[in-house]
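User: Just a sanity check before I run the rest of the batch. Below are the structure tokens for the first item. I only need the designed sequence back.
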């Protein structure tokens, strides 16, 4: 089961909020925003919806969940709270049931384990040990430990495996996950008869030390990993929600933890995470990008009025904004992984014309697919070489993993004809970070027939293909930049256009999957120095 949308009306501090993930919700949904923006309140709504399917969990008063109690305007104020009206959830897959949500709060810290007897536990779906709101303490580690002991005891009573096999199976499964996150190893489940009712670990040259001796961060990881491992057997059509799992963890551990949690959660489920962690954001940006939606609660005041939250477009500008939320005044330390110096005026011409047009176009085309790449206009052919060399000397000393590329148009021979053979020779005889467009210049991509046809279809204009074909006989090599007025006519645009604005609008239409996109991408990102 996955959530498609959630509509909250007068719930917590929200007036009217809709979260809309679209018809194909992804497996991971990350709620990002500063403290107090409403992330945990969304999880409270999910927790509230579970109360339609269980008899316990009414720990909070209605005024905890309803905004109607607190309006400044007396006419809006009310003492009524209707859960069915306040929370409306639409799913993809099965309808809501008792196991539709499994929620971990931010308030969880089990300092030590001390189990003195093995006893029968209630059914997992009973959920008596679950927190009932985002401010409740989560104490489920001890229950999960008891369930592991129960599995081992059941196998001893009715199974065919030896004690060593059972131990290896249980510990091996946990350690296969832990080994990718931490440098600790689970070595034993303890022995209640001998007063050792807790988990035991090894680290470095230290053997079989108790859970209580772990650091806060190590306990955090083990708590989450055990919980997901134990619960996914029953919760197999569930939205798993984890509120601020980054507590006590450094960024590298955060990143590895999210990657491993995603593997543990079945594909039939969904994982929601509320965070402002750099490590989790990096995992979502890179390893888990194609599986994730990011809901950015830092963009607006979503408490007041009617608001809709949809998944963030993964552009560099948007990533910088949410990393700014995580880093606050350290955001200036974020650098792109790749800078591409390209041709184009680095300062404005008359009327602010063509200021960095090439860079604006390329940033528009590639900002989602390559969010860690920035295109910078650096003047003409000679200036481009000079500025990129200075940047390489300076920036490489500060950022070890930064790559700087130099991208030139194919008209780099001062107007003289430059063939594709000349382009290849240039790449052979220049540093490997140099690139050359395989078409004459950027306009030869923007004014490609497929792009103009897409533009006309979007704007409901008729495209004059016959006239286009008469003018454009070789879109790869022909100088089309100086004929922009003709292209306006081909699209049956009757009003004047600003050429630069028109080109930027066309750039938005060059999208992944189009042959023109693949060709441009090849020229910049996949062209290697020729032998």
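Assistant: Here's the designed sequence for the first item:
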């Amino acid at each position: 089961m996955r959530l498609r949308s959630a509509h909250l009306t007068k719930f917590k501090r929200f007036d009217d909020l809709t979260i809309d993930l679209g018809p194909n919700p992804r497996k991971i949904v990350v709620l990002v925003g500063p403290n107090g923006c409403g992330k945990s309140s969304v999880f409270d709504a999910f927790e509230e919806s579970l109360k339609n399917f269980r008899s316990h969990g009414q720990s909070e008063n209605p005024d905890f969940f309803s905004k109607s109690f607190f309006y400044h305007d007396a006419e809006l104020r009310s003492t009524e709270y209707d859960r069915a009206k306040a929370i409306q959830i639409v799913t993809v897959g099965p309808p809501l049931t008792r196991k539709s949500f499994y929620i971990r709060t931010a308030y969880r810290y089990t300092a030590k384990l001390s189990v003195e007897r093995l006893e029968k536990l209630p059914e997992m779906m009973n959920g008596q040990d679950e927190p009932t709101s985002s401010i409740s303490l989560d104490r489920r580690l001890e229950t999960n430990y008891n369930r592991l002991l129960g599995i081992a005891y059941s196998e001893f009573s009715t199974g065919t495996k030896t004690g060593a096999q059972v131990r290896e199976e249980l510990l091996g499964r946990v350690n296969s996950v832990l080994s990718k996150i931490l440098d600790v190893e689970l070595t034993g489940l303890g022995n209640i008869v001998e007063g050792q009712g807790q988990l035991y670990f090894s680290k470095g040259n230290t053997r079989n030390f108790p859970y209580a001796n772990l650091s806060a961060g190590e306990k955090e990881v083990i708590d989450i990993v055990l919980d997901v491992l134990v619960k996914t057997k029953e919760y197999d059509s569930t939205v798993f929600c984890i509120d601020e799992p980054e507590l006590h963890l450094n960024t590298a551990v955060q990143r590895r933890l999210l990657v491993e949690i995603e593997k543990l959660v079945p594909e039939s489920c969904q994982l929601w995470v509320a965070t402002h962690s750099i490590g989790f954001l990096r995992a979502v940006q890179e390893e888990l990008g194609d599986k994730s939606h990011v809901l950015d609660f830092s963009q607006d005041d979503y408490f007041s009025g009617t608001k809709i939250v949809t998944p963030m477009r993964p552009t560099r500008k948007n990533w910088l904004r949410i990393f700014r939320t995580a880093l606050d005044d350290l955001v200036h330390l974020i650098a792109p992984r790749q800078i591409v110096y390209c041709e184009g005026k680095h300062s404005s011409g008359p009327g602010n014309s063509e200021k960095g047009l090439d860079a604006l176009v390329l940033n528009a085309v590639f900002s989602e697919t390559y969010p860690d790449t920035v295109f910078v206009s650096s003047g003409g052919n000679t200036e481009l070489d000079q500025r990129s060399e200075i940047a390489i000397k300076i920036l490489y000393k500060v950022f070890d993993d930064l790559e700087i590329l130099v991208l030139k148009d194919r008209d780099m021979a001062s107007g003289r004809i430059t063939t594709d053979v000349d382009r290849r020779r240039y790449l052979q005889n220049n540093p490997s970070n140099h690139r050359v467009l395989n078409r004459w210049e950027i306009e030869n991509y923007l004014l490609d027939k497929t792009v103009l046809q897409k533009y006309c279809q979007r704007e409901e204009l008729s495209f004059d293909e016959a006239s286009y074909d008469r003018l454009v006989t070789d879109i790869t090599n022909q100088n089309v930049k100086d004929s922009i007025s003709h292209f306006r006519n081909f699209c049956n645009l009757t009003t004047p256009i600003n050429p630069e604005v028109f080109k930027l609008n066309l750039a938005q239409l060059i999208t992944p999957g189009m042959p023109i996109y693949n060709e441009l991408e090849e020229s910049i990102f996949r062209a290697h120095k020729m032998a």
